[in-house]
Amino acid sequence: MNAQRASFGSAIAGLAPPCLRISAVVLAAGLSARMGGSAKMLLDVGGVPMIRRTAQNVLAFAPTETVIVTGHRAEDVANVLADLPASCIFNRDFAQGQPTSVAAGVRALTQVCDAVMIMLGDQPLVTASDIERLASLYARLELESILVPFYESKRGNPILFASRHIPAVIGGGLNIGCRKLIETRTSDVYRAEMESDVYALDCDTPEDYARLLHRLEKMQ
After folding, report:
1. What pLDDT digit, counting tens, does each position of 191-201 carry?
2. H helices within the chain, ranges in order?
3. 63-104 pLDDT, tens per residue?
4. What residues does the MobA-like NTP transferase domain cover (predicted)?
5. Helix locations, 80-127, DSSP H
6. Nearest 10 degrees: Cα torsion 6, 71, 90, 43
7. Alpha-carbon distance values, 143 to 97, 183, 186, 188 (Å)
């Protein structure tokens, strides 16, 4: 597994701050309720399923550990990720919403880390370089312990938070996916204004998917 992880990171070696250990949790459990009957994690994005492209980008950043949380169509999602150096865990409570998947993924982490990154599975345009920019900003924080990216005032993802928050996230005392996080944890949260809109893009509807494919064509 370590050898595989190294191969994914080789093209972007040295991106992560050298002394900062970041573990990644990728959320891929949702019902895709607004996608018109399609399981969005399995939709084709540049020749590969969406969740696989997202996972490959995360792995290229070379996190300390990567956990992918499944739920809806769990077996199919796990199958398209089977050869990647990441752990797939099933959230039996996935239908109750994203916070349960965040807690399940964080609970499944086994390696010591300094920070945890929560990545959405429908963010295939967020590259390892984009993640590195967030990690570099996080590494320079002095007072805040939660970093949330924004683009033109729109809240984005992934979110990074200090490992000391792990017990609160697992216990439900800190909802990292909650939009009220900024208001309730003012002293802990750093709003990172980013130059790229990829952090604020998601893929919930067929229209979103069409825009994603159009954007991908322009990038290639």
Report:
1. 999 999 999 99
2. 2-9, 50-60, 74-79, 98-107, 128-139, 166-171, 181-184, 206-219
3. 999 999 999 999 999 999 999 999 999 999 999 999 999 999
4. 24-171
5. 98-107
6. -20
7. 31, 16, 11, 7
Q: Which residue has the tokens 């900062």?
A: 20
46 φψ region: left (φ > 0), alpha (ψ -120 to 50), beta (else): left
Cα 17 from Cα 195, distance rounded (Å): 20
Instruction: List % helix, strand, coil for the chain (3-state, nearest 5).
Output: 40, 20, 40
Q: Among all chains, which residue has been given the structure tokens 């312990």?
A: 145
pLDDT above 70 for 62: yes
Which pLDDT band holds residue 18 (cuts at 50, 70, 90)? low
The count of structural domains within the chain is 1
Largest CA distance in the chain: 45
C-alpha angle with apex 139: 197 to 112, nearest 5 degrees?
110
CATH code, 159 = 3.90.550.10
* Statement: residue 14 has pLDDT above 70: no
Q: How far is CA 29 from CA 18, 96, 168, 192, 198, in A?
A: 31, 11, 21, 27, 21
Q: 135-186, pLDDT tens digit by residue?
A: 999 999 999 999 999 999 899 999 999 999 999 999 988 988 877 888 888 9
- DSSP state letter for 95: G
Give me the count of residues in the chain.
Answer: 220
Range of 99's domain? 2-219
Residue 65 burial (10 A CB sphere; 0-12, 13-18, 19+): buried
